Amino acid sequence: MQNLVFAIAIIAGGYFLLRTFARTPASGMALLVRKLGGAALMGLAGLLALRGGINAAIPLFVVGAGLFGISPGFGNNFNWGKRTSGQSSKVETSLLAMELDHDTGKMDGTIKAGNLKGRKLSSLTDGEIKAFYGTCASAGDQSRALLEAWLDRSRSSWREEWQTGQERAQPTSSGAMSRDEALAVLGLRSGAGEDDIRKAHKRLMKEFHPDLGGSDYLAAKINQAKDILLHP
Question: What is the pTM of this model?
Fold first, then answer.
């Protein structure tokens, strides 16, 4: 009977994993793999405990809980990779204010000007997004690059669907960045120390590094923000 329960659990878990991997964007895959590894270790710990191996189960559970992002009651030293809740990164151009929620990995933007002013990108129809893309392309700043970063993350097949022959917008110098803007880009508060700045930069570059399928423009902004805060 016990073996049947384990077999059912394995089948159900495999089905869940396949669905989860299929729905997870590339940018969130590393976090997903870490959490799945933690869940697997906690499951193994539970199996060992049921079979009388409590001494081996405890350290496995602690490690698994840390990888999963929860503290098993031993302080924060075991809570590896956990982010401070409520953090978000913000990048703005003349037409668009983009925000990345660090807790969920969701990125969305608010239109700042024009007949779509105040609308969220996620609420636009395909026709509205195409029209706004044209507006961004003629804006003369980095609005197009910022919109493309959102499209690449939220609608990865948009280039093929639109059949656009345009090259990817290239990041250009956006001028001086204030310290407040740099803090907003990295999702930090005033008074953040060097260690906080480097950790935020590293975490965001894992999301947006061009070699990992991220955005050239956002990666440039993240690097600029780090330089401003570390070398004012």
Answer: 0.56
